Amino acid sequence: MLDLTTPIEKLPKVGPKNLPRLKRLGIKTIKDLLWHFPSRYEDFTQIVGVGEVKETGRVVSVVGEVMKIKTTNIWHRRLSITEAHIKDADEQLRVVWFNQPYIENSLAEGSLVSLSGKVALDKRGIYLSSPSYEKIHNSNYQPQTELVHTGRLVPVYPETEGISSKYLRFLIKPLLATVDGIYDYLPEGIRKKYDFPDLVQAIKTIHFPESVVEAEVARKRVAFDELLLFQIKSLLGRRGLSKLKAPSVIFKPELVKDFVESLPFALTNDQRICAFEIMKDFGRSYPMNRLLNGDVGSGKTIVAVIAAYQAADSGFQAVFLAPTEILAHQHYATIKSLLVNLQYKVDSKSATPPTLDPRLFAREFSSRGVADLPNLTIGLLTGNETKQWPTDEVTEEKIPKKLMQKKIAYGRIDIIVGTHAVIQKNVKFKNLGLIVIDEQHRFGIEQRMKLVKNQELTPHLLSMTATPIPRTLALTVYGDLDVSLIKEKPKDRKKIITKVFTKDKSSEVYGFVEKEILSGRQSFVICPRIELGNPQEVIKTSGKQNKMNVLWAEVKAVTAEYEKLSKSIFPNFKIAMLHGKMKPKEKEKIMEDFKNRKYHILVSTSVVEVGVDIPNASVMLIENAERFGLSQLHQFRGRVGRAEHQSYCFLVNGGNNRFENKRLKALESCDDGFKLAEQDLLLRGPGEFVGTKQSGLPDLAMASLTDLELIKKARLEAKLLLKDDPNLKKSPLLKTQVANFQKIRHFE
Ligand code: ADP
Ligand code: MG
């Protein structure tokens, strides 16, 4: 007996050739096969008598007997034409297939056949052109309910080379009748409340619906299941978290006020609110698990620093994790200058300007005699460099790694800024109270867990991301996190002037870039590819893909663009390139050099670092902008305009497609990352924000991430379920499903 866990190689119709192909589609078991849902349906429901086939262009289905069938080869055109005549009670119809000579063998004269396809006309009259076909076995010429490929709504699946929808239908259809062990785990009450079909029925209907409406209902049911499981998992994660004990960081409003007043700018309202939300989390007995979400340049760092400052004051260490050395350096420098400001403010009566000389600073800092300010020491720890600030009597700012590790272990460093190097066995904290993760998507869950483990108390966790996340996504994918939003930008920001160009306007754009560089600025040029498309690759593939590849081959590439710009367009400027095939060290070096103005132009793929401040860059030129989502373009744009210079973002539409032009134009008027993200979600789907793998969301749930109503329902039901039955004792099937559902991000 087949059940859901049976591997597909047990099916007689899956041979050694197709097995790896199916696996490529992610299909390994019967369950995977049944959960491989159609991406759309072919509407072959217009069933007519042979005599009624008249109107050309219409898609119809007919049933009849094959009268004669014959294949002719037209050698010089490399074409084979299979022509058949079929007949029902009283009429005949001509049917033509091109280049499918094997059909002649499978449809012998006298067999009964069901056909679905388009009606066409040539000089010999009306015919059915290359229809889908299947043999049938009863003779009353009535289409049967058991039709699979014709005469009904026919499922069209995500395919791969060698695995056609027809083959998948051939595999799936018989399984639906025979497979055992699909138990409906959704509690009956919920099913009734929303009038959902039961699971077996839903699965059958998704594959072979009677109507599109019916298919929609069935899909909703399965998507709801997935969203519900996800929500339950999130709630359980939160509950697990609330049982852990966190370091008790004490919120001292006066201290924070002093610190905020020492800043060279006033906080925005959103920054204040976010900082306050963090302080409230600190007040609880269990660890914070919060995501700080704000556009590039919205000022997330300072909010995190306030949190770290507060944690340090309570005697706990805080760690800032950055994905790259250059970002770690940047954070270290920021925090250092903030401390200097703070110290200056405290000493403002003395009117000495703040100093950046480490030794002087150290002396001033320790001699200032202000009792109620914590004596903070910050450290930088990356693969290449370890630094400490302020320095003490015997050390320079740079100190040996071993010494740093010791100091961290003894609790002598309060705020540690670092890269992955911090997450290593030989780095032990004395009392870690807060973990701040910048660009959180760049760190794996395991890496975060490593920091959390080995600690008596579970540190508070603040993740930061500059990717604006639409609300529906935040509710699901980040369901286990509390989210703080910075929507408002600091007031002094100049709007980045954004303009969409067609590709024939490049000389105009280059002229502008030149002007900016001559006035002392720098420019980014972004291309979608690393190397140009290979024409060979285009020829090898077939069909639709072929067309895609031809287009893809025309897309601009970093290497070619670098050549072109440095040789013919801007021979007098220094130009560098950056892409994902380079080693991390090389990449960092180039970023660093660009930051230090050693190049005028940086030609890069999308790898160009998100958080890096290049204040002198004023132009962001994006080639083939039509290839990117609005959110991503907005991210690129955020890399300029970080200083007082008026900055520009030029989007070159390489496709000359009017729809694309309109989509891109949204960026000209809108600089709200969240609004753009919502548009992206509608236009390009959720893949833009979360890779399926990263989110752990199954396909249907992914597809329903725009359905706020369904998401809300799932959230509500998950809450009610757990409130009523905290350990899901009453729903054992559901409990098993939850246990098997993908792990998601929290302190498990
Ligand atoms: P992001 O959210 O992208 O990490 P940062 O924290 O790096 O942004 O801040 C970007 C810049 O804005 C920094 O130079 C920072 O000092 C400055 N900044 C932050 N908050 C404000 C504010 N309220 N007013 C003015 N400038 C600010
Ligand atoms: Mg940042």
What are the defining features of this structure?
Rossmann fold; single chain; 6-stranded parallel sheet; OB fold (Dihydrolipoamide Acetyltransferase, E2P); 8-stranded mixed sheet; alpha/beta; binds magnesium ion; 39% helix; 748 residues
Structural notes for this entry:
With 748 residues, the chain is an alpha/beta fold. It folds into four domains: 1-40 and 153-180, no CATH class; 45-151, Beta Barrel (OB fold (Dihydrolipoamide Acetyltransferase, E2P)); 253-486, P-loop containing nucleotide triphosphate hydrolases (Rossmann fold), CATH 3.40.50.300; 497-670, 3-Layer(aba) Sandwich (Rossmann fold), CATH 3.40.50.300. It has 27 helices and 21 strands. The strands form four sheets. It has an eight-stranded mixed sheet, sandwiched between helices. A hairpin with a 4-residue loop joins strand 3 and strand 4 (92-98). The longest helix has 31 residues, at 212-242. It is globular, with a radius of gyration of 32 Å. Bound molecules: adenosine-5'-diphosphate (ADP) and magnesium ion.
